[in-house]
Amino acid sequence: MDSREFRNAMGKFATGVTVISTDVDGDYHGMTANGFMSISLDPALVAISIGERAQTLKLIQESKRFGVSILAKEQLDISKRFAGQVNVEESFQFDVSNGFPVVAGALVQIICRVEQEIQAGDHTIFLGHPEQVYVKDGEPLLFASGQYASLNPQYVTS
């Protein structure tokens, strides 16, 4: 199996879309990522996976904190911006919650303290303990098979 075949196979798993953010000495940084999951309820832990070439990796290692903003379906432009799919001249205006950058209007904003860092192939997994969580109603932005998607109520069964 080659890496392209593996990537295509993993792309069949639909995910939400997040912006991972951090703050180093008052400079805010962010990146789009779908490598995010809940790990434990007690204690509360989440995980993010960051590629070794991402600038955000070193910044999280330095700050020891990260934010996760789970994007709403209306925030496609924000996802593309932080994925480097569009060039924008002006700097992004993060929402600041308890002094930490998150994306305004996101369905969920989580601010985490790094609990553990695990090297895994060409990525680093950070386990984070949520210090603050904000949740609002809405439909998430999804990603599957290399494209953005949204929920379709006609396929939901009870």
Automatic annotation (TrEMBL):
Q: What are the protein's GO molecular function terms?
A: FMN binding; riboflavin reductase (NADPH) activity
Cite the InterPro entries for this sequence: Flavin_Rdtase-like_dom (IPR002563), NADH-dep_flavin_reductase (IPR050268), Split_barrel_FMN-bd (IPR012349)
Q: Which domain of life is it from?
A: Bacteria
Q: Does the keyword Oxidoreductase apply?
A: yes
- Gene3D superfamilies xrefs: Electron Transport, Fmn-binding Protein, Chain A
Every Flavin reductase like domain range: 10-150
Q: Name one Pfam family in it.
A: Flavin_Reduct
Q: Which UniProt keywords apply?
A: Oxidoreductase
Stored SMART domains: Flavin_Reduct
Any one GO BP annotation for this protein: pyrimidine nucleobase catabolic process
The identity of this protein, by name, is Flavin reductase (DIM6/NTAB) family NADH-FMN oxidoreductase RutF
